[in-house]
Design a protein that fits this description.
rod-shaped; single chain; mainly alpha; 41 residues
């Protein structure tokens, strides 16, 4: 059985990893969108 501290640490690490993943996905999406947009004249 995990202690509450261990459980909390795991959950916190998960959410931090999630946050990083989401940020990088958003960044990639923005880059893709920029590539697909016609150049502004």
């Amino acid at each position: 059985m995990l202690s509450l501290y261990e459980l909390n640490t795991m959950l916190t690490n998960d959410s931090l990893a999630n946050d990083k993943a989401l940020k990088s996905i958003k960044k990639q999406r923005r880059i893709i969108t920029d590539i697909n947009l016609p150049p502004k004249s």
